[in-house]
């Protein structure tokens, strides 16, 4: 188990998940912003 790091594995896996989640949030926030501007809210 030399050089084995549980956290390194988690970090790599999490990077992919966070990228997907971040993209989703960006899309949702952009839609809300557009709707707010269009509605004059």
Percent in strands: under 5%
Enumerate how many helices there are, as a single number: 1
| Broad shape | rod-shaped
State the helical fraction: over 70%
Q: Structural class of the secondary structure composition? A: mainly alpha
How far the N terminus sits from the C terminus, by CA atoms, comes to 58 Å
Q: Please, what is the average pLDDT?
A: 90
Largest β-sheet summary = none
User: Segments where pLDDT lies below 50 for 5+ residues?
Assistant: none
Radius of gyration: 18 Å
What is the number of E strands?
0
Order of helices and strands: H
Structural write-up:
The protein has 41 residues and is mainly α. It contains one helix and no strands. The protein has a domain at 15-41. It has one helix at 6-39. The termini are far apart.
SSE map:
Elements: H1 6-39
Q: Quick summary of this structure?
A:
The protein is mainly α and 41 residues long.
List its salient traits:
single chain; 41 residues
